[in-house]
C-alpha cells in the first residue's frame, strides 16, 4: 500500500447506518455471468436486467448485433451508456469500446451497433418513449 495510507476493515455482518438509527440494508450481488441473455422486442438486441426499481430506473447490459437498430425514441430522463465492446452509433456520433455517451432528457434519435456489433452497460432513469409504442423489455 502507498505510504501514508491504511486499509479500513469493516466487520462482517449487519451494521447500522451512519446517518439514521436503523440497520444498513444489505447489498445485492448479481451473477451477471450466469444470467442468460433475454431477447427483446427489437430484432438483434438482447439484454440482461441488472437493476430495476420498478418505476423505470434500470441498469441493463445490452448486446446488439451488427447493424441492429434501436428505433426512434425520446429519452424521458438522462440515459448513460458505456461501451464495453464494439461501437454504438447514431447521427450525432460514434461511441467506441471503452468510451461513454450520455443523452439528456428530451433528446430523440435512432441508434445502432456498428459493423462489429456492440455490448454496452446502459443506465436509464426513466423508460424511453418509442415512436413505435414499444418499450425495451424482455419478450
Order of helices and strands: EEEEEEEEE
Strand content: 35-45%
Overall average residue pLDDT = 89
What is the subunit organization of this protein? single chain
Structural class: mainly beta
Spans of at least 5 consecutive residues with low confidence: none
How many runs of DSSP E, i.e. beta strands?
Answer: 9
How would you sum up the major sheet?
Answer: 9 strands, antiparallel
Query: What is the CATH C-level name of one domain?
Result: Mainly Beta
Q: What's the overall geometry?
A: elongated
- Distance between the first and last residues' Cα: 48 Å
Give a short overview.
It contains no helices and 9 strands.
Characterization of this structure:
By secondary structure, the chain is mostly beta strands. The protein has a domain of 93 residues: Jelly Rolls. The protein has no helices and 9 strands. Strands 1, 2, 3, 4, 5, 6, 7, 8 and 9 form a 9-stranded antiparallel β-sheet that branches. It is elongated, with a radius of gyration of 19 Å. The N and C termini lie far apart (48 Å).
Task: Give the arrangement of secondary structure elements.
Blueprint (H helix, E strand, L loop, with lengths): L37 E2 L5 E8 L5 E7 L4 E6 L4 E12 L2 E4 L3 E4 L4 E17 L4 E2 L9
Antiparallel strand pairs: 1-2, 2-3, 3-8, 4-8, 4-9, 5-6, 5-7, 5-8
Amino acid at each position: 500500500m502507498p505510504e501514508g495510507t491504511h486499509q479500513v476493515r469493516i466487520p462482517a455482518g449487519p451494521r447500522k447506518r451512519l446517518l439514521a438509527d436503523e440497520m444498513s440494508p444489505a447489498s445485492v450481488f448479481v451473477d451477471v455471468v450466469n444470467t442468460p441473455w433475454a431477447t427483446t422486442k427489437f430484432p438483434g438486441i438482447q439484454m440482461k436486467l441488472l437493476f430495476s426499481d420498478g418505476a423505470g430506473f434500470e441498469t441493463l447490459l445490452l448486446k446488439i448485433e451488427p447493424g441492429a437498430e434501436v428505433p426512434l425514441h425520446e429519452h424521458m430522463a438522462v440515459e448513460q451508456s458505456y461501451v464495453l465492446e464494439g461501437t454504438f452509433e447514431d447521427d450525432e456520433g460514434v461511441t467506441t469500446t471503452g468510451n461513454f455517451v450520455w443523452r439528456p432528457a428530451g433528446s430523440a434519435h435512432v441508434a445502432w451497433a456498428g459493423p462489429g456489433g456492440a455490448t454496452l452497460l446502459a443506465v436509464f432513469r426513466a423508460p424511453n418513449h418509442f415512436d413505435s409504442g414499444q418499450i425495451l423489455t424482455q419478450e
